[in-house]
Structure formats: C-alpha cells, structure tokens
Amino acid sequence: MKQTAQLRLVPHPEREAPAAALSDLLKAPGGPRIGTPDRSTAPRPGRSPLGQILLEMGAVSPGDLLKALALRNRQDVRLGDILLTHDWVTEADLMAALARQWNAAVVDLLAQRPDPRMIDALGPELCLREAMVPWRRIGGTTIIATARPEHFARLRDSLPAEFGPYKMVLAPERDVHQSLLARRQTALIRRAEAKVAPDQSCRTRNEQTAGRIAFGLIAATALGLWMAPIVVFALLFTWVMVTLIATVGLKFLAWLTEMRAQSRLRRAPPAPATAALRLPIVSIMVPLFKERDIAERLVSRLGRLNYPRELLDILLVVEEDDHTTRDALAGARLPRWMRVVTVPDGPIKTKPRALNYALNFCRGSVIGVYDAEDMPEPEQLHIMVRHFADAGPEVACLQGILDYYNPRTNWLARCFTIEYAAWFRAMLPGIARMGLVVPLGGTTLFFRREALEELGGWDAHNVTEDADLGIRLARRGYRTELFAGVTREEANCRTLPWVKQRSRWLKGYAMTWAVHMRNPARLWRELGPKRFWGVQVLIFGALSQYLLAPVLWSLWLIPFGIWHPIEAIMSRELEYVLLGTCVLTELVNITVGLWAVRGREHRHLMPWVPTLHFYFPLGALAGWKAIYEVIVKPFYWDKTAHGVFDALHTIAAPGASSDLVPAIAAAAPARPAEIRTPRAPLID
C-alpha cells in the first residue's frame, strides 16, 4: 500500500493528479450506461480496481488515469477503451492488469484454436456480440475465453445449462474475432446473406416470373395502343394523372406540415437546459468498393467529427476481392478508432450484405452508416445522440440531412442539389411529422442497435436496402425521425452516371414495393390505412411518374394546335383544365424548391429552381433502364464513381475550424491498416 500511495502522488508532466481525487474516482462505480444493461464496471468486493492495478504496475501515469476515470464517469465506455484510444497504456500492460484483477489466465487463441463444435453450439453471432469464444471442454467444464470479464457472470447464466459448468479465461478481443473467423467465417457470411425473413426479402423473388409479368404488361400495352389506341391511351392517361395529383399532393402536404412546424419552433421559447448525457459508443460502418484514392479524404473528413475518440468506432467495410480499395487503405495511417473489416467473397456483392456482416463487429449501442464520399458536420454525432435521448424508444432510426459540396460544378449538380434540398429539408421531415413511412436514404442513418438486430439488419438482395428497411421498421411499429445533422457529399453531375445511379434507386424501389405487396392485407394490418396508402404514393406512384412521364409531356402539344389522342375523348375546355392542373403541379414543385433553398448556403440556387422541369426527363430514361434490369439482372449493383469533382482542398465543413481537420500522419501512430477482424480495445 505504501508503494501505491507513492505512485498516486507522482506528478504528470501536464497535470498533477491529487491523491484524494484519484482515490475517489478509483472507487467510484460510475453511473448507468445508456442502452446497454449490466455494464457497470464497479469491481466486486475484495477485487482491486483496474486503475489501481495499472498504477501499481507503473503502466499508466496518475494524471492520465485521472483523466481517463473522469471520462468514464460521463461516458458509456470502459476504462480500457479510453486508455488505449489515447495511448495512455499499452495493450500488453492492460491485458496483464486484467489477468491480475480477475485472477484469470490469458490464453493464445491463435496458437490454440477453439473447438468449432462448441462455437456452433453457442452460435458464432452470439460469440461475436459478447466478445467471447468457447475454447475447450476440460473435465466436464467448458472454458470460455472472453475479452469482457465483467460480463462473464451475466453471460454464464444465459448459456445452455447442458454445457456447464463454465470457467473464464482471458483473451484480447481481436484474437477472439480472428479465432472465430478462422473457424466459422463461411457461416457468418451465409448468415449475412439471409438475415431477413424470407417473406420480406428479395432473395425469394422469382426473377423468371417477374420478367414474364413485366414483359407481358409491356407487350399488352403496345398491342392495345395498336388495336385500340384511344381506350388504352385513356387508361394510361387516367393513371398518370391520378399518380401525378397524388404525388404532388403528398409533396404539398408534407411541405405545408414542415413549414408550419418550423414556424412554431421559431416562435417557441428557448428549451430549458437538459442534464448532461452519458454518451454511448457509436459504431459507424462505411462500405467501400473500388475506391482508388478515397483513404486520405475519408480519414480527413471523418476526423472532423468532434465526438470523443474513445466512443467513436468506425468500420471501413471492404470486399475481399476489392484489391483496389484494400491497396489504397494499406498505405494509409489509420487512427485507433478506425479499422478495416474485410467481407468474404460470395455469390452476391451488395452493400446490405456487407453491412450485415460488419454489424457483427460493431461495438456501439448506436449503429450508423456513411458513404465513402461523405463529409459530416463536426457536431453531427452529438446532435444525433441528444435526439435519441430525447425521443421515445419507439424512435428506432434517425435520418440526417444530405447535401452537396459541389453544387456549382455544372447545371446538373445545381439541379441535383435543389432536388435533395426539397427532399431532405421539406418532403421527408413533413412525411415523418405526418406519421407516414419514411423511405430512408443510404447514408447518415443511425439506429438503436437492439431494433436493428430485431429486424435482421438489411435485406442483402435488395439494391435499395435503405428504403426497404424504412418500411420494415414501420411494420414492426418503430418510427423514423429526421435530425438536424447535415452530411455533404459529391453530387453526381455527369449525365450517364446520373442515369445509372437513379436507375439503381428506381430498381430497388420496384423490388421493395413488390416484396412488401406480396400480402397486401397483411401490410395494411401492420401499417394501418394512412401509412399503407402513403407507401403506395411514395413508391408505386413515383415509379409510375418516372415510367409514364412521356404521356404527360405529350400534353404540351395541345397549346401548339397539334392533334393529341386525348381530344377524341375530351372537350377542349377539359383539355385546358388538365393543362392547368399540370401547371399547378409545376408551381407546387417550384414553390417547394424555392422554400428548400432559401437558406444562406443555397440561396444562389433559386434562379435555377424552374429549370428542374428539364432535369426530371432524365429520370424517365433511368426508369426504363430500371425496369430492364429488374427483369434481366435484379441484383446488379451499378457502381457510382466518387471523387470525380472532389474539391476537398477548398472545402471546410460549416462550423469546422482548421484544428478539427487532422492530418493523416498525425491521426495515430503507424499500425497495420488492414485486419481480418476489428482491433477492438480491451475492457476494464
């Protein structure tokens, strides 16, 4: 004890640690952790605290330990995570201290592999989630190697009784992961491909039947236009007008709802100060595919996030055969809070499949998704965590606002930025406030982990997995809300890539609608009438508008005195009523667009809003390309290239100061960039 007291009084070069304060923190159990039960790190009676053991070993300075303990008391993170993240302790010393604290042996799982039969009995996903692996069965006792000894008592009680009794040994979490992957990697990737229930997944879709149906409808329409052109055109025209009024009407109501909500918020008195949050660990997955030079930009952009580094867990998700991205990351110096997860090869290669696989390695109670080119604003994670804390448990997903950092590149980039502004700043917030189903975007998504795992993650066979997940969340009774965090990315401002990207989205919309409409009566019961019809308008109505847009365009022949088939079934007066309806819908689109870009950053786009009338015809090409791919190659992922118009060197995120943009070389000490399994810190 005398030696311990002397160690506690050693001053740190930057900050002296008072002995009394350090002693109090060492004994403090810490508050409850958000969203994760049974995570108290209070030592058992008679068991020395981890920090005290590290001090006695001389493995950590008193000043660094005092700072780490203070952080632990207000964050949902283990002491070992904090010490390792800030390089205040070595991994070897931490492992030795844990072994001493828990009076447990440390085993080398890479030299002495675990029993694969025991892994199968408990399930590899459970093992990954609990950072443990059944190592040996000796003398009727099952030896469990774990990286989280403080959870062993709870874990032991939940394991099958027939394999008991259980005894604990220790192993680093990265070794636990590597040993599991060495034995059961194939089982994990097969599970990632089939996590969603068959009745709500595209994998059970019959492509041949769908192709025959689509081809039959197209052939019947063409034959009808030849044999009875007036009747068939009248039917098509009626449908396109119904869907036009429905989609534009929903857009107008959503905008009106959001505009009124914004007005009420401006008039409302300032909200009272709320108690400080105990911040959770946030895991963010970034799927990458054939990104040649994305590594440096990606680390720099995500480095702007000012969330505590010990609570930040970023996974760069890379396909096994994607040597382009893997080579790019191999030359990067990744900080400790960023790691590479390699997705094994398989029959399909989709973003949702990769996300399902990487979800097994996430450490956080909140799961996020970013795209490769994303540049989130620095405060985004704090805004998101606060929103989750203030919302009820039924709010399982938060969608951030997407914007573009290159709107001045060309006309297509300006129109794309206006379209996204209207969608994410007017349409989606209004839809969420109206209680309708929110079709999620593919990035800046955050989920409560329990809800995401309950749904089975993403549908690995759907190329618009985000919109599908939004519907499945609603079907389970969960809600999605938008939060004020903004992420900027690169506008796809080349014509052919734009058409390819939009066709992929529309193909996914078509597949998603077909999957969820397999049993319309069940969908009606689970969503309710309002949300059911909202899905029909948002998805099927939008698809109809893209595919039948030429029918609407043909109305502009009437003012020029050119004969139109509609004249055979409609009077001239009614024709002009229809034209007036089209003009009114165009005015609604312009009004919503102007409102969405009224802010200081987008005001320069206002003169370009009316030109969207010439921008949306590209969507008709994308729509027909999407239908073609639904028939011939439904799971094909049309890759969008990133970094074509990247101007990062001249861009700073709003509110970000230069000291929030770390250089790659200063981000962390050099270490191997790619590992088969995440390098997760040890526990306290």
Describe this structure in words.
- This protein is an alpha/beta fold.
- It folds into three domains: 98 residues, no CATH class; 77 residues, GMP Synthetase, Chain A, domain 3 (2-Layer Sandwich); 318 residues, no CATH class.
- The protein is 48% helix and 10% strand.
- Strands 6-5-4-7-10-9-11-8 form an eight-stranded mixed beta sheet, sandwiched between helices. The chain has a three-stranded mixed beta sheet with strand order 1-2-3.
- Helix 14 links the parallel strand 5 and strand 6.
- Helix 2 crosses helix 4.
- The radius of gyration is 28 Å and the shape is elongated.
- The chain starts with a helix and ends in a 17-residue tail after the last helix.
- The N terminus and C terminus are likely disordered.
Entry summary:
The chain is of the alpha/beta class. It has three domains: 2-99, no CATH class; 116-192, GMP Synthetase, Chain A, domain 3, CATH 3.30.300; 199-263 and 392-644, no CATH class. The chain is 48% helix and 10% strand.
